[in-house]
Fold:
Amino acid sequence: MISRFEINARSAFAVLAGLAWSYPALAEEPVHFAPHRAVYELSLADSSAGAGVSGVAGRMVYELNGSPCDGYTQNMRFVTVMTNQEGTETLSDLRNSSWEDADGKKLRFSSTQYQNDELADASQGDAARSKGATPVVGVDLVKPSKKRVALPNDIYFPMQHASTLVQAAKNGVKLLTANLYDGSEKGEKYYLTSTAIGNEYKPGAKPVSPALKGGDKLAGVASWPMSISYFDAGKDQEDQLPAYELSFRYFEDGVTSDLKIDYGEFAIKGELKELTFLDPGKCTTSASTR
Structure:
């Protein structure tokens, strides 16, 4: 259970266009994400008697860089100490990095997980969407072993999915479904996701906590409450519970706050404690209008 939480943690901040087949046509105005560094304090939100988890303490640092011209790079360091009901602590250290081009056609990813300072898992690969009337999506894995994996043609990559979520929210869409791939689970698995989007918080309508360092820069940014349910692909969604649910407040510039990851038997919350906006990526005139 703890291992599953750690592996899937990368999906929490990969929420962070173009394929609109299951909802109304969206505005074509591109979404411009703001490069930033965010620090989150992790803790246990709630736990049932049989969960086997009595405490969680940790920190996550997430960094987004890039531009609509050069694509986006995401880096995350996720460190937790989980305590079971017998008082035994497990130290987990998850490190993820990825690059995705602006058109959602290529994704490079790398993930390394340590447990109690020993290497527990590693994955690395490249995913690409081929050209043509019927594009094919394939993944070339390097770790944990060399392997070719085929994905559905309608798959979303993380930043592509994030962009579509913002576009959907701005158009008043309340429910969005999508197949999502981010290279997690040894690079061989994708999820069917269902996102519920709440009503917009207009700029200034719901101020962030004054304790959030750098939070004043969010005062002029619109946001929406969202909740994503992740289902195992290939199974009948009507007959299954989600593998986990992720809820958060998503700002138009790509910043995430009020994070909660619910696994049914226990839930983790992530409180945004520090936000630093980084230098924006530069686009030439010709590139920015392509």
